[in-house]
Amino acid sequence: MKTTIHYTNISEPSHPGLEIRVRGLALHHLERHLSSFNPELVQLHAELEKGTHHKSYLVKLRLALPSALLVSVDEEYNLDIALRAAFADLERQLKRHMAHLRREENWRRKQRREELRRLKSEATVS
């Protein structure tokens, strides 16, 4: 996975630490779900911005996949909390997208219908 990070109003000395934090969160939240994609085609763009008036941090994450573009935005007064929330949201979106690619909505429904029919037949027999 290619990762690019853009900083706005964040001091230069903190960039290496933030880059390690972003890559660690990406590894923890996203990497296990991306094993089916070619790593060269998956791109993560992170924008970290410190507000000038409200002293809050804005985190924007864009995950470009061959089949979709997933976006997550979070704003908090603590940068670490904003990063974790944005990555958690991006992970949720990625799980949903992967389920859609596997067409889980179709086979889950059929499986559930079969189970309900079996339960109804058992209830009428009893």
Q: Report the count of strand segments.
A: 4
Overall form: elongated
Run of helices and strands: EHEEEHH
CATH topology, anyone? Double Stranded RNA Binding Domain
Task: Give helix % range.
Answer: 40-55%
Radius of gyration: 20 Å
Please report which band the strand proportion falls in: under 5%, 5-15%, 15-25%, 25-35%, 35-45% or over 45%. Answer: 15-25%
The strand order across the widest sheet is: 1-2-3-4
- CATH architecture title: 2-Layer Sandwich
- Head-to-tail CA distance between termini: 56 Å
Give the biggest beta sheet: 4 strands, mixed
* Structural category: alpha+beta
Continuous helix count: 3
Task: Outline the low-pLDDT stretches.
Answer: none
Mean pLDDT: 90
Instruction: Report the CATH superfamily.
Output: Ribosome hibernation promotion factor-like
Question: Total domains, how many?
Answer: 1
State the CATH class: Alpha Beta
Descriptive report:
The protein is of the alpha+beta class. It has a single domain, classed as Double Stranded RNA Binding Domain (2-Layer Sandwich), CATH 3.30.160.100. 48% of the residues lie in helices and 25% in strands. It is built from three helices and four strands; from the N terminus they run βαβββαα. The protein has helices at residues 15-29, 79-101, 104-125; strands at 2-8, 43-50, 57-64, 69-76. Strands 1-2-3-4 form a four-stranded mixed sheet, covered by helices on one side. Helix 1 (15-29) runs parallel beside helix 2 (79-101). The longest helix has 23 residues, at 79-101. The termini are far apart.
Offer a few descriptive terms:
126 residues, alpha+beta, Double Stranded RNA Binding Domain, four-stranded mixed β-sheet, 3 helices, 4 strands, 25% strand
